[in-house]
Prior knowledge:
By secondary structure, this protein is mainly beta. It contains two helices and eight strands. It has helices spanning 47-50, 55-58; strands at 14-23, 33-41, 64-72, 79-92, 100-112, 130-141, 146-156, 167-177. Strands 1-2-3-4-5-6-7-8 form an eight-stranded antiparallel beta barrel. Keywords: Hydrolase. This is Acyloxyacyl hydrolase.
Amino acid sequence: MLRIHAGEGLTGLFSEIRGGAAWHDLGVREGGADINGELLFVTPVPARLTADLPPLYRWMLEPRPHIGFSANTEGYTSQGYFGLTWTTMLYRDVLRPGDGIRFDFFFGGSVNDGKHVTNASDRKSLGGNLLFRVGGEIGYQIDPRWSVSLFLDHESNAGSARANEGMNSLGLRLGFGL
């Protein structure tokens, strides 16, 4: 299982590092590929508070803070992001002992270098440089350290500005537990 509690990861602070590539804006207006990197910290919730809960509920009370980036390879919108990630194992011992199918849900914010309002046919009107970011990830946990996953994220200002075209990305990344 993933290392999510303090004292179990590298220096007790970090839980996992992930990296990969994403299809930027899913071909809607902006294009190209994104290079993605993410660092997950251990949960701030002490293990003793959730140890007696059934796994079905435990994951909801053990979010891991994260920071990351998506850099567009063709000069379109790039962003840095931050938030919380909730992880649960859907199935264990799928192909061999210690592996499994996992699901992550994440929520937070992002800071981007995109356009607030534009008439350019190849750019999005995002309404601002600070957006909400939400998404999910489904992955194969190869062993306690390595995973591969498919993720989908959505960024928008949630209607807080007149322009709100939002942006979706679909990606594949490799994870390594620290």
